[in-house]
Design the sequence.
């Protein structure tokens, strides 16, 4: 099983450019999440999708949009990148509120984004 | 709101030393508690978990006990190895919060041979 797959792994953008981070999971999970990781701040939730067809804001949603394309895929879009969005982005998935439900997250390998 | 506080790092130990990384939490409901580990260049992976008070999670020689009275979930290992060098994150998932997971800031562990 591939688990959670994120693309791209690395990206350099100029301020004002746009891009989309792609995420796919093959574990039939209901819920998917986007986190950003910054030094000394742990992981902060940007957006999440509790189930197919729903999305909600997390702790730090400003400057981002998301799309839950289907049950497998959850993309994160930066419409106009800013240097403050330089970070490592992680996609994660979980069973959510159905089935085996202890809140365990399964993570992708991360996408390192630099905005100049 | 829910929050997780863990000890700041980095923590530097010699091989075979005893490890403790402290973690305390605040939650409005009855959360599940987790320790995740992140090796260099990788995503996070679950190390251990506990879903109710007094449960002990264990894996790869690591242990943590869910203490509701002290709202703590400290990570311990009796004898660390160089291969344990990583960043460790304490986290909680609260059903009352829609199962959104809240993470601590992470503690970097260096183990010297």
Sequence:
């Amino acid at each position: 099983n591939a688990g959670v797959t994120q693309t791209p792994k690395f990206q350099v953008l100029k301020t004002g450019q746009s891009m989309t981070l792609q995420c796919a999971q093959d574990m039939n999970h209901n819920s998917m999440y986007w986190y950003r990781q910054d030094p000394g701040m742990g992981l902060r939730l940007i957006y999440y999708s509790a189930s197919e067809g729903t999305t909600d804001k997390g702790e730090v949603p400003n400057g981002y949009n998301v799309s839950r394309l289907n049950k497998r895929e959850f993309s994160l879009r930066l419409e106009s990148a800013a240097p403050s969005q330089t970070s490592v982005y992680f996609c994660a998935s979980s069973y959510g509120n159905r089935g085996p439900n202890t809140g365990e997250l399964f993570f992708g390998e991360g996408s390192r984004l630099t905005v100049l | 709101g829910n929050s997780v506080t863990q000890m700041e790092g980095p923590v530097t130990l010699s091989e075979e030393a005893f490890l403790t990384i402290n973690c305390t939490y605040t939650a409005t409901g009855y959360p599940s508690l987790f320790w995740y580990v992140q090796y260099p260049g990788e995503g996070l992976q679950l190390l251990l978990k506990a879903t109710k008070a007094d449960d002990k999670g264990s894996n790869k020689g690591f242990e943590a006990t869910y203490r509701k009275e002290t709202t703590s979930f400290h990570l311990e290992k009796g004898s660390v190895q160089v291969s344990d060098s990583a960043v460790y994150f304490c986290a909680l998932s609260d059903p009352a919060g829609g199962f959104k997971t809240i993470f601590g800031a992470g503690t970097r562990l260096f183990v010297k041979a």
Q: What stands out?
A: The mean pLDDT of chain B is 93. The first strand of chain B starts at residue 3 and ends at 6.
